[in-house]
Amino acid sequence: MTPFAIAGVQMHVAALHSNVDGMIHRLDILMARFPWTQMVLFSELAPFGPLDQYSLPPENETIERFQEAARKYRVWLIPGSMFITDPEDGRIYNTSLVINPEGEVIRRYAKMFPFRPYESGVAAGNEFCVFDVPEVGRFGLSICYDMWFPETTRQLTSQGVEVLLHPVLTGTTDRDAELAIARATAAQFQCYVIDVNGLGAGGVGKSCVVDPTSMVLHQSAGQEDMFPIEVDLDMVRRQRETGMKGLGQVLKSFRDRPTDFSVYDRASGTDDYLKTLGPLAVPLQGTTAGLEATAPAMRVPLMPSYQGQETVPGFAHKVPPVFAPEPLPNPTAGTLTPVSLEPEQPVAPAAGTPNPPVRPGVFTNTTSHETDSSSG
Fold first, then answer.
1. Contacts 24+ apart (CB under 8 A), 272-275
2. Angstrom distance (rounded) from CA 237 to CA 161
3. Of 120, 195, 254, 272, which has the maximum CB count within 10 A?
């Protein structure tokens, strides 16, 4: 077993004044009550709330306070996220920090999918966040709406991420849908999901911790909560080798897929239907958007996929790749085999070990503490 104790902090977040003192105070309480905690995760935009008017420069006193707190308690600290203004282009990014027990900021992650059209003034990041906890495992970070796009988690877990840290600010009626997505993400990508929402201006709570079998290990309600959970990363490695509950080996199945997905090639034409949808805009009162829209068949022609077609329209006249045929079922299955009446002769056992042990997944590429402040 490779245990590691991660605590989520679901707390009230104010929109019009700093919450940093409250975060430090709750960290003090958490470490007094649960001194075995090794990593602490707060909710999205917990330090200053959801208004980007409180955006700060990349280096500021608040970050220094969080660094001091991480160093004081010797914990990995992810203090939610905050709006950071890039001094070069002037754009505002929803940015999360990863601070190690030495108080060093080792990663900065800018949210890839701002909640548009509602967060129209927030720029999107384009770098993933992956980091190693020495002798423990590999962690990844995504923020709130990022999880609605499984490509983000696919990229992280393809790099070996075993625990997905997911700070959230959801105060809307789609929180239950997010909880379903959290469970599905854990099962699809065979990882832990630590999903921490805020309260008040920071959300409606309902934080959760999900294990790689999609089992909910903890579910907060609508009040303040501190929930340290000890995760077992050997469980992740075992299930990635042998399947979830001995069943689906989804990461290996994706690795061994017989096809690539043309929808990710923006020039392929596969996504022509998406281009017929209206603009990304906040709905207005009385809107009839979508009610008078024609069916997809009326908007964009169907790409034929019958045999003998030499080229596929919209694919730059590329010949579709030829894949090895799938293995056929046993041709004798279901047929009667004549039964011999002669006594069976003993069969010599095969040489070697009858059931060689399966080599378990081994975590590699554990590095020493990194001190750079670039995104992962």
1. 272/300, 272/314, 273/299, 273/300
2. 11
3. 195
∠ CA 106-107-111, nearest 5°, is: 165
Whole-number Å distance between alpha carbons of 181 and 186: 9
For 48-82, give the DSSP string: T-S-GGG-B-SS-HHHHHHHHHHHHHT-EEE---E
- Count of domains in the chain? 1
Q: Pick from 101, 163, 152: which is nearest to 124 by CA?
A: 152
pLDDT in tens, 141-175: 999 999 999 999 999 999 999 999 999 999 999 99
- Beta carbons of 181 and 197 less than 8 angstroms apart: no
Give the whole-angstrom CA distance, residue 232 versus residue 312. Answer: 47
Q: With cut-offs at 50, 70 and 90, classify the pLDDT of residue 336.
A: very low
Structure tokens at 261: 């997905």
CA gap 214, 207 in Å, rounded: 15
Amino acid at 273: Y
Cα–Cα distance for residue pair 239/212, rounded to 1 Å: 8
In whole angstroms, give the CA distance from residue 250 to residue 186: 11
pLDDT tens for 237-255 read 999 999 999 999 999 999 9
Tokens found for residue 324: 């090895």
pLDDT above 90 as % of the chain: 74
Asked, for residue 116, whether it belongs to a domain, the answer is yes
Inter-residue contact 219 to 239 (CB < 8 Å): no
CA pair distance 206, 214, nearest whole angstrom: 16
In a domain, 278, yes or no: no
Half-sphere exposure of 11 (CA within 13 A, CB side): 30
Binned at pLDDT 50, 70 and 90, residue 309 comes out as very low
Closest CA to 290 of 276, 303, 310: 276
CATH number at residue 47: 3.60.110.10
How many CB atoms are located within 10 Å of the residue 109 CB? Answer: 27
Domain membership of residue 237 as a residue range: 3-247
| Token pair 């042998």 in the structure block, residue | 242
CB 51 within 8 A of CB 24: no
Provide the residue count of the chain: 376
Contacts of 265 (CB under 8 A, 6+ apart): none
Does residue 334 lie in a domain region?
no
Within 10 A of 18 (CB to CB), how many other CB atoms are there? 13
